[in-house]
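Encode chain A's predicted structure.
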Amino acid sequence: MPESCLLRLPLGEDCLETFNFEKAVCNHGFFMMSPNIWFPCTKTLKRPLRLANSVSSVIVSISHPPNTTSLLINVHGSDDHLQLSVDDRHAILAQVARMLRISDRDVKDIKEFHQIHSEAKQRCFGRIFRSPSLFEDAVKSILLCNCTWSRTLNMARALCNLHRELSNGSSCNIHLLLKSGTSERKEVKRKQPEAFAPTSVYKSNLKGDELSVIGNFPTARELASLSTKFLNERCNLGYRARTISNLAKGVEKGTINLNDHFGDEGTIYDKTWTQLTKIKGVGPFSRANILMCIGFYQTIPSDTETIRHIKEHGQVHGRESCNKQTVEKDVEEIYEKYAPYQSLLRSCSKL
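Encoded structure for chain A:
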């Protein structure tokens, strides 16, 4: 019996003009965060994706062979997993399209951006890698805040490991013990595992049951069922555990309308920003990052790296004294001429 099946995602003529698979993946830190695994030698992206029921997952390998007009999506799994319904196939293709920004709107944005920034066109840059769902993007944006990059990677990996263990039932007893806990303890001080290294942790020849070692990123429903205390203790999230828990519960209750457009297709940027400000614990940096993941590029996620970049190019920007108090105003004035694609320009300059 076959151990995988193959799906194809046609790119279309307009998309092909601006599409480079490796650059569409390796341009934003999210591609390094679990459960994403990038194999540079074969230029293949591997990770779990949800089926149409939003519960079951399958491992897929995504590639774009030279001189072809479609992405190849190799779906791994047991025989049961391979009996994909039409809805399952559509769900997988939709998630891949979202991750790599394959849509008419994205093509339009990229071509307009290239008109105002010719260097980006020459470098075939214009797609910011994102997750299969906006919820995963939102949680990962929270994980980026106020910590080192290795800590961010460790927290993302812990969440995926948690999903795998809960799916297998191995954490059920711990979960039942902590479910009733409501008090928030101080951040756990423990030795952090080594930073996630995709090519050394997982091998590209994993097949069948071996692929189950890769846990998917938890959904809002899965995280909403956990206590904040358990989430913090199991994944060492610190204060982020409460923010993520509140986000997940808000999404499940319907009080947070977390989707790519927050309603109608024509939702304006200001309305989307207002929606995000209602999510308790999500600050300006996370909001800007989530907006960028949605496809609104007007606001640049500003952090210490942004300050360092502006100060290093102080003679060009005239902002040698940029600091935490001035960075938002500085980036607004520096990049305003590239509106509404400011964060695309900033991301391009970081590559």
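The CA atoms of residues 51 and 84 lie 8 Å apart.
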